[in-house]
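The following block was generated as part of the benchmark described in Methods. Ligand: iron/sulfur cluster.
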Amino acid sequence: MSVAKKSELIEEIQKWKTMRNAIILAHNYELPEIQDIADVLGDSLTLARAGMATEAEVIVFCGVHFMAETAAMLSPDKTVLLPDLEAGCSLADSITAAQLRAWKAEHPEAVVVAYVNTTAEVKAESDYCCTSSNAVQIVESIPEDQEILFLPDMFLGSYVQRVTGRKNMHIWMGECHVHAGIRAHQVESMFKKHPDAELLVHPECGCSTSGMYLMAEGALPKSRSHILSTGKMLNHLKHSPSDEFIVATETGILYQMEKQNPGKQFVPANPEAVCPFMKMTTLPKVLDALKENKHVINVPKDISEKAKRAIERMVSIG
Ligand code: 13P
Ligand code: SF4
């Protein structure tokens, strides 16, 4: 796209945004041009809270479907738009409400902690919802003798289990295809090339579980390795004295890291860790969303009523 065309589109988007009293929320993995037009850019928890807090009437959600759905449930009076309906999530697709009901029947005493990367129907079957930013605190808020079903991400689940030392936690074997592909051997080989770098790992990563063992064994430097949500990674950089970072998450976040930290070097642990769903939102689609009021995300009332308690717990903790 030419520079002139791009600035024309951005100008139109701003005009329509004002006309419709809209706000643009964007996730840290979105395309650079989408990150640049966002009123709020952040991780899942930040965006869920921003959607609730805004006085705008329309929320254009530049992220994936479950995020827009969560915003719609938290703000039933606002219009939530997802510019591309195909922007899904392989992790959210790894468990259905029927599968969860069957799992609950096997563990009738357990409470359910669902990662935000789930459909509204799955949230409606859950007691607590969490994001990568507050999963540990949510589990810690549950009485120690209470059995837990944690879903759907096995890497996040085993990270939370290790940090909390929780024994009575069952973990669903789901994964995000993007993060599962970031392996410990890739991180180790990056460390050989960048021995002074700090390591930032998203807990959904395939390397997060093995990475913790490697840290415990001293194979990865514990003091320079951090397991963080995307938002906490960006916050961490504000205070870190290091100049070089190995980043184990979806590569879209590197744009923001470089923008906010000029002169520092950011290396992806796996340059192929690209989420196709997060790249579906483009400037022309954002403009169409505003002009044509599409695609409105609505959650049936019976589902959102049931999901509300779990989601409200998520936004109130951590
Ligand atoms: P964050 O909440 O850390 O932004 O993660 C969301 C996500 O989809 C990770 O793949
Ligand atoms: Fe889903 Fe993975 Fe994409 Fe995040 S990176 S939205 S978990 S597919």
